[in-house]
Amino acid sequence: MIKKILTGILTASMIASFAVLPVSADYESLEYDIEQFSYTYDDGTVTNAIDNTPALQTADTDFTRIFRSTLNTTNGFCLSFDFCFDSASAEIQIPQLNSDGSKVDKVGPIITYGWYDSKDQTKLQLRTQTGSSSYQALGEFTIGDWYSAEIEGRTGITQDYTSFRLYNSAKELVFEQKSFNMRNLSSNDRSFNAMQTKGVSLDNVKLIAENPDTIEISSTSGELSAGQSVALDYTMLRGENEFTKHPVEWSVRGDNVSVTPEGSLLADINADNQTVTVTASVSFGDKTLTGTKDITVKAVDTADEKFNNITVAGADSIKAGTSEVYTVTATKDGVPVDVTNEDIVWSVYDFNNINPYYDASFTNSKVIDVENGTFTVADGVLPQTVTLRASSISGKVYGSKTINIDLSDSQTETVVMSDAYEKALLADNKTVSVDGSIAYAAANALETKFGNQNGYTLTEMDIKFTAEGSGIVLKRNDGAKTNTQITYKNGNLATNASALITDAELNAWYRLEILYSTTDASCNIYKYNADGTLGEPQKFLSIDRRNAEQYGMIRLEAGTCVDNLKISKPLPYELELSAPKENLFPDETLEISATASRNGLPLKDTEGISWSVLDEGNLPIIDGTITINESGVLKVTPLALAQKIKVQAKTATGAVATFDVNIQSGDIFTITNIGINEDKTKVVKLYVDKNFNYSDSVVFFIAVYDDNDVLQGLTHLNRFGDTLNVGENEIPLDYTLPTGFDPETDKITVMAWTALS
Has residue 711 been placed in a domain? Predict the structure, then answer.
């Protein structure tokens, strides 16, 4: 039977950040490593020549599954096994399977026997596949002999962090590949989760989660005064080498001191002179690894202070675009003290209450500010945590209040993710933003994942390009497909296909708005002015989408500074209507197109648009003579009168647009006026509009009626339609009006009779 030992499992959620793993001559077990499993095969049908125990022989036709694992191998692992290739076609695969294990999702190492140099295919070795027809050598090898292998390192980054070691049956190292190719598992935080073989005999298959054995704590200062705080950080080591950085729990031993979960050591104003000990700890299985650091606390003399204790009271949270009033209560040696605004200095600090929110050199308008206890957050500020301080004039004594900032009520679009980057603590990863707060500075590439999005996605950010190749890339969630990118190239801000801005400036702040879908992409690029206001946008209505895949990851290239990143599902806040023509006759239709947009960027095929038809007084036309359907097709029935109308379209977000349409008469000819001589005795001219092409005969009848509607005279004029122009016409006429014609009471009517009448 198979002996299986499971001693512990680490999950991906335990890991905060990563460091380079050591590559050693062979695996060295350390105290906090956890063996995931160890398989031996007591009922195997072949013998392991290394330890003379039974071993498993796998079929040479179909793959045999050796194990499934839940270990996150991006954190550090060692996989070891004894093996023998029973034939030249034997194969070992170490892939990432899909969720139900039914097929390979991402290809990992594929170890076979054969040539590895296409220029010399007679030299055969153990090898691993690096491409469809390329290989990496793993050492000289004999079919039918037993070997031991160790694969140690971490997946999810380049193969430089993983090594392969081959030992002969005497356990002598015969080959070492320090840059073992992990194929598709060498990027995007991917793990292998299985092993399968065919034509291979196996024994002693073991998977170990490697962990650090030392925590070294650092701080921004080795001492602090009472009432102040310092930031703590840590490094994890495995042996003497920096290792994967696991999240820790902080604690402190001392009087009137505390430490936050994020690693800020705080000394109360009443703290005495002392040395305190901070501890960072993390558990691996049933063992706990700790690191400690001593920090000196210095007492502060508050005898000259008006108060030596102050408490800030008010709301725990605030929405962007609003203000809240905060109050203070002060005491001196436990006795209440009355304080005024002249006694208090109000300020805003970062989330861990260590550094001022704004850089000292920042003088532009502040989006988060406090004055005499009134705390104001500008509309559009992203969710983040800040600290409100009320201190004495000297700053020795202060009270603070942690405040969570939430999205504004004006944020009606669904936010997929956002980051104000106010928690960039390491000096290498922070800089001053255009708004005076902290911005993230990518010393190395940084990838942030979220779920793959359907339809349009809007990505907004403040960004500074500081080096060639710096910029951002929109990718599919698994990182395998690159979509739109905007990077700094040879003085240009460019996509993969073309330059957008040809006079781009390094180290200047810009704002990007990228509207992306798999079928369409566009962007606005603004440059910030010196006073922090935005310049006019440069608009690009069609930009390269490269692979045009779903979008679920954003990558910051090295040298990119970014702040106020927001990814959301855009809504159509602008609408524009268009149609092939503006004039329409009865019994005709007109298809009107609606183009929705978001800040000038088109949202094609927007759904949920409502349509209506209005008369010249902006009242709905409801008699059925003129209608429009949900697709924007306007229909004019034969009974519709000549008139001017407005077609109105409206989105659910309130964007409204109109399109003017002129409904013309359905008659071929329209009599617009008649001309009478100065004596008012003759009709000398007819004014006629020909509405559309007609070449056959037309008869114009002119009738005169008295004030009792009694016919007094009648004449007619014969013409052919092709003698008249489409549009306005003046037709000469010489018709003597009846005797006694009174222009004040009598009337003249004209009617056109055609072959179609």
Answer: yes
